[in-house]
User: What shape does this take?
Amino acid sequence: MNPIELHPGLADVPVAESAISFIDGHKARLEYRGIAVETLARESCYEETAYLLLKGELPTQRELADFDDQLRHRRRIKYKLIDIIKCLPETGHPMYALQAAVAAMGMFYPARDVTNAQSNWDSAVRLIAKLPTVVAAFHRLRHGDDAITPRDDLDQAGNFYYMLFEREPSPAIRKVIDACLVLHAEHTMNASTFSGRVTGSTLANPYTVISSAIGTLTGPLHGGANEEVLDMLDEVAAAPSVQAWVDDAVAKKKKFMGFGHRVYKVKDPRATVLQELAEHVFAETGRPKRYDLAVELEAALAGILGPKGIYPNVDYYSGIVYNALGIPRDLFTPIFAVSRVAGWLAHWLEQLQHNRIYRPEQIYVGKREQPYVTLEKRP
Ligand code: SDX
Assistant: This one.
């Protein structure tokens, strides 16, 4: 038996074999089922990418049409679920509303028998179809507006934008949203995916699995970073200069949000694609000052962080794109969840194929064989 070694954050520790996605962190390569993410963002769509992740192959034309139809007809949420969302505090973070609603879904759609492939598939379709509706409903209801009923004639990206703003996006804006959904859909064994796998390994129902993953994604070191990047750029904008802010941040050993990654030791390929997408958005919305500031900050940090292998990750530019689309900051991470649910579900289904409950070890550093001192003998 090998001596037990501690691996903080499970760095470099493989916890499963998976065929869903692949990252080469030194060559900025990310593939979903072997296909480069840049190609999928440009040529594919979220519906097709979700099918690819779940099934392992690109769909035939008929398979895609059928899957798309299933999604469109499963988008509506129960009135009772809307009532639950209405009871949540308007000031609460939308990620908490999403997590609560998804956990509740498991009560409306009982799916405890995870050995039933059809039931698992139906749950997966429901979750991919309904998460955008939940996010948009909470956003509308918290402002005192009615939730907007999903439209069957719009695709996932267009319908999400429509449910948020009660108007259809332009073709260019729709494409950008769709590409953002593709870019965020899957990313090997990230924290929220691992969290979902751990929950799924106990044979918990899929709604609980996704609720676990959503909870994990909220953290600022993970999916919550995209919102924090805009807050950081606000600070930079208020400083005398970018360099002055950098000097102060380095002196205070600040963590730069949107930078660094456990796997990428070069710039995250998704950040590069997001910059391209940003240009498309800005052609319609105008070029926000925050974007040029972000580019300037990236250049100013390159000399300091680059030698450490710390570069922009997916969260660095995504919030700037969403901000330019008029999407409020606290919806940035819910959009991440609305996309990543496909990857989480793909890992859940894969986990069930060769399931073994996750139960790692620990290195005990506490006291042993202590006496019990009764209360009266204690000070
Ligand atoms: C996502 O895992 C995934 O795939 C996640 C994700 C996905 O698609 O699912 O890619 C999405 O979560 C992207 C990451 C978003 N988070 C942030 O942008 C928050 C800022 N980033 C850091 O907190 C950090 O880079 C992490 C959390 C992303 C990675 O953490 P690691 O791998 O555990 O690295 P670490 O914290 O151990 O840092 C190693 C060194 C440290 O220096 P030393 O103490 O050894 O001297 O690098 C430094 C860190 O201080 N460092 C940073 C830094 N990131 C690492 N220093 C300043 N700013 C940073 N952003």
Remarks:
- Residues 225-324 form a domain with the Cytochrome p450-Terp; domain 2 fold (CATH 1.10.230.10).
- The chain has a mean pLDDT of 96.
- The pocket of s-citryldethia Coenzyme A is lined by residues 9, 187, 190, 221-223, 225, 255-262, 308, 310, 313-315 (CB under 6 Å).
